[in-house]
TrEMBL record:
One of its GO terms (cellular component) is replication fork. Residues 82-127 form the DNA helicase Pif1-like 2B domain. One of its GO terms (biological process) is DNA replication. PANTHER family: ATP-DEPENDENT DNA HELICASE, DNA HELICASE-RELATED. InterPro entries: P-loop_NTPase (IPR027417), Pif1-like_2B_dom (IPR049163). SUPFAM superfamilies: P-loop containing nucleoside triphosphate hydrolases. It holds the Pfam family Pif1_2B_dom. This is DNA helicase Pif1-like 2B domain-containing protein. It comes from Vicia faba (Broad bean).
Length: 246
């Protein structure tokens, strides 16, 4: 599916979605996002966190196995802290969380719905303590409200993990970028869509391209398997949806 040239980013063009990076501008943090898959979102967030101003602080989680079920014959030696630290699961904060004051983050768990602290809520980090983080909400109905985020003991819900363990960590992820699925339902002034590979589900491309409020605010970067820029990507459509169309 070819994309309009005006929205594509040529190889020699400035690839910034917006002209400057200023963590303090609420409009930038509330309205500018990058749509990418999970791995690309992580790489982008780590890169932009590294070039930003301010002192970086790293928070490490405390991981421990839950009581093993008697019908599972698995040695406790397998569940070492070093092994548990390497586990990455959707909806679970990473063992190593790098933050700076002014960085946008996203909540991964419901904490207090009355305060607007729900899964998917975005905040700006304003203060970093050892056990508690202070932040300001930048999305939803509680924009501007100051809140405090504690460490929580979290258990992954991924059924592919054949055992239970707890991770005590701040329930946050750095949110300079988000996946296409996480962007559903949002209207953003500027959107940069990065597609290093084709989308894999019906409707994903539509969701990614329809988040922006105007064509002027949309930029798309598509690369092929060799890492070269292109203007073509595959749009997955289930043919069954057309069966009832007359």
């Amino acid at each position: 599916m070819p994309q309009p040239d005006r929205a594509l980013l040529p190889e020699r063009q400035n690839r910034l979605i917006y002209d400057e990076l200023n963590y303090d501008r609420r409009s930038l943090l509330e309205e500018h996002r990058i749509d990418a898959d999970i791995e690309e979102r992580k790489s982008f967030s780590e890169w932009i966190l590294g070039i930003g101003d301010g002192k970086e602080k790293t928070y490490l989680s405390y991981d421990s196995p839950c009581n093993a079920r008697s019908d599972i014959n698995m040695s406790d030696d397998v569940h070492t802290p070093e092994f548990l630290n390497t586990i990455v699961s959707s909806g679970l904060p990473n063992h190593k969380l790098k933050l700076k004051v002014g960085v946008p983050v996203m909540l991964l768990r419901n904490i207090d719905q009355s305060l607007g602290l729900c899964n998917g809520t975005r905040l700006i980090i304003t203060k970093m303590g050892r056990y508690v983080l202070e932040g300001k909400i930048i999305s939803g109905n509680n924009v501007g409200q100051k809140v405090f985020i504690p460490r929580l003991s979290l258990t992954p819900t991924d059924k592919r993990i054949p055992f239970k363990f707890q991770r005590r960590q701040f329930p946050l992820t750095v949110s300079f970028a988000m996946t296409i699925n996480k962007s559903q339902g949002q209207s953003l002034k500027y959107v940069g869509v990065y597609l290093p590979q084709s989308i894999f589900s019906h409707g994903q491309l539509y969701v990614a391209l329809s988040r922006v409020t105007s064509k002027k605010g949309l930029k798309i970067l598509i690369t092929n398997d060799e890492g070269e820029d292109t203007n073509v990507t595959e749009n997955v459509v289930y043919k069954e949806v057309f069966h009832n169309v007359r």
